[in-house]
Fold this sequence. Notes:
This protein is mostly helical. It has helices at 5-15, 17-22, 25-42, 46-69, 72-93, 100-107, 113-136, 152-166, 202-220, 237-251, 255-268, 278-285, 302-317, 326-338, 364-383, 387-392, 397-406, 416-424, 431-444, and strands spanning 175-177, 183-187, 190-195. The protein is built from 19 helices and three strands.
Amino acid sequence: MSVSDKMGELLQALSDPGVSGESDNITRRMVEECKKDYDRNRKIPPELNQEYVVLTSKAENVWEDAKHNDDFASFQPYLEKIVAINLQFIDLWGYEGHKYNTLLDMYEPGMTVEKLDAVFGTLRQRAVPLLQAIQASPHQPDRSFLQQQFAKEQQKQFSLFILKELGYDFEAGRLDETVHPFATGLNPGDVRITTRFLPDDVVSAVMATVHECGHALYEQNIGEELYGTNLAGGVSMGIHESQSRFWENMIGRSKAFWNRYYGDLQRHFPGQLDSTDVDTFFHAVNHIEPSLIRIEADELTYNLHIMVRYEIEKGLFDGSMKVADLPEIWNAKYKEYLGIVPPSNSVGVLQDVHWSGGSFGYFPSYSLGNMYAAQLLNTLQQQMPNLFELVEAGNLQPIKAWLVENIHRHGKLYQPNELIRRVTGEELNPEYLIKYLEQKYKAVYGL
Length: 447
Ligand code: ZN
């Protein structure tokens, strides 16, 4: 039905300037979003779509085995085919400038290679020297206190406590346990969170919970006038990720936050953290070190992991890179950006699931999330100069209210770039993330 001729006629009628000129904002945007999906889906012949769905579902199993057995060769033909069909899709959908732009637009409407090259270029230029300075610093964190067993039940209790503090609505969601944490929203009245409790790591579950809570707060606080429409959700992957990273990194890894909540953490694990003071704990949760696995990376090196994937995706779609060469290219880029080389493809080019499902253009969203979050933090601090005093007092509700007012309630009413401009007064600017990272880590590492 969604790609039927009838649907096309209806959308055509609603898009008519005479009609859309008289429509309210919400209706106009609903039609716009719907028409975008319709046009995109209509252009793909059903047989090609079917072939692709079968291919990607097989590819995911093949990828799993390939990763497990460190066997890139078995995954290679699948990845080649997935790229080839995506190139066909791009030709059918059409593109402006770089072919990869069409894929980027699926996750971050309006994003282009031109814009990303500029922001990533600036970020990289400043992130790499900062990382080098951090690595050379004699002031490294003491993380020995982390090497003990933390009871799962107590970890869960602390996660639930923090969720309440953040303003997560338990009448419209719940917390469960999983292997890979995620948040999922059925509608604003039912947005669930999962987290992961590692017995020997007390920090992991808290941070995963705070991260997923950031996603959930977004979905729980969509404006009521958008309920039941196609605008009732996060506007893009990048903006969604900005909400999770804002809470996880900018608030959840701040000194103010732990000044307030470290005592509560200590009380949840009687006797286990008594000899560790808040400064030691704070430095440990902000430990920076190049690592091989993206999902375990700290907030500075994370962006470098993304740049590797971005450059490879760009190369695959402009024809300058071949799938067969990816293990070699991957390792060379890790050496160049992070100074480390994966000992196997399992922890290198095969580590992420995304490509097996054809999700090209998705990775940049993670870094965009960091950049949007820092830009929002900058604006929020101007409007709320006592921001971190509020955090230190455990008064997080004004912060949540600001995000609801400026971001959450709008759902997909504004395009990402429009939304960011409305809230911060300018387009995406990587300078805010760079300044945030430099300021924070120069203090943490005594540079
Ligand atoms: Zn996330």
